[in-house]
Amino acid sequence: MSAAAPAAKPTSAAKSDAAAAFARGLEGVIGGQTSVCSIEQDKLIYRGYEIHDLAAHATFEQVAFLLLEGHKPSADELARFKKEIVAERAIPASVAKFLTDAAPQLKAGTAVPMDVLRTAVGLLGHQDPDCQDNSAAANLRKSKRLLARIPTIIGHMQNAIDGRAFVQPDAALDHAANLLYMMTGRRPTTEEARVIDVSLILYAEHEFNASTFTCRVIAGTLSDLHGAVCGGIAALKGPLHGGANEMAMEMLKEIFASVGEAGIGTPKVDAWMEQAFASKRKLMGFGHRVYKNGDHRAGILHTLGRNLASRLGGTPGGLAATRWFDLGEQVQKIMLTKKNIHPNVDFPCGMTYFVMGIPVPQYTPIFVAARITGWCAHIMEQHADNRLIRPLSIYTGPAERRWNG
Ligand code: ACO
Hints:
It is a single chain. The chain is an all-alpha fold. It has helices at 13-21, 51-57, 60-69, 75-87, 93-108, 113-127, 136-162, 175-184, 190-203, 210-220, 225-237, 244-263, 267-278, 296-309, 321-339, 346-355, 363-384, and strands spanning 37-40, 43-46, 49-50. It has a 3-stranded antiparallel β-sheet with strand order 1-2-3. The structure holds acetyl coenzyme *A. Acetyl coenzyme *A is lined by residues 25, 240-242, 244, 282-289, 339, 341, 344-346.
């Protein structure tokens, strides 16, 4: 720990106990109970269903229903849910105008899509008739509206950046396909739509991660769902959390710029990595607070992305899609051999979204389009059985002293 040693030892018994249990970054600390998700070293489970099972057999809409409503939907329930979501996709004109107005800042880089998305969600709250109502029924209605509208915000934002007329939602398309369509104006192939759909399933929920915990802390003060989600978006933006999917791709682009295509598969990549290790650089898309033997989600997305890449052509930098995976796999191998650190889900996500032509700054907003389901499930769970979340701290400042002496 870099901070100075405590000037005075905690005096109360409670503080002494807490000091004994102190874990930097709350590592290993149990922060509450949940029935939404369970993470074990060898399994990731959403409400009893294991992630490989969901990725192979469920759709994102089914998983969203599972997380929000608490059980697997029947065919009728799913049809009704999908209809409700499709009906809620349009965003208010004032929010659409805000997205147009934000385009210059997005282009200048003073704002990034995660900032604009956070503000847009706040604006949606202002106009939501249920905004100040924390009842279970109102929270569920708000959750569904956000689930439906976040892809529209992302799509319109990208259209504004590209100087294109807003691509309106297509009621015939499922959630993932519609998200891609609104961003690009192009209807994705069945395979592309399924790859995005699975990525949304993998990103939907992850127990007490930093952004979900943020949402729960905010909800724990009995603040509202939109406010809690804004906090979750702010937390997810960071490169140590969801922002890593963008940074992982930026890092691969940096390696490629350094070694060139001919350098892929050669010791030039090892040399780049050695330099990164020597400068104590964190390699984005690697490591995890909970998984030390690999992230269950990473392999699933890697396989899908790699398969898709083999059917795609060149990417914006001119490199064939599969070559990004060749480079990524080499980087993974070096990380494992030299550091024994595995990729997390953000690493294959970066490559997969890149070869699909999705603009890098939208990767973390797409993560939000999925995680909104997990966040809302946790906010509802917190509101349903609330106790203020308020830990203690260990004081490291100066000993008590007199203002006038
Ligand atoms: N690159 C290089 N070294 C790493 C990495 C990495 N990505 N991750 C961990 N390490 C090293 C650390 O330098 C440290 O080494 P040391 O003991 O010699 O100092 C050791 O492994 C432990 O790392 P911590 O950062 O203390 O582990 P922590 O559990 O606090 O952090 C985290 C987990 C933040 C995810 C970390 O692995 C990291 O920064 N990864 C890169 C960012 C990233 O990919 N985040 C996405 C996480 S998944 C998600 O949010 C969807």
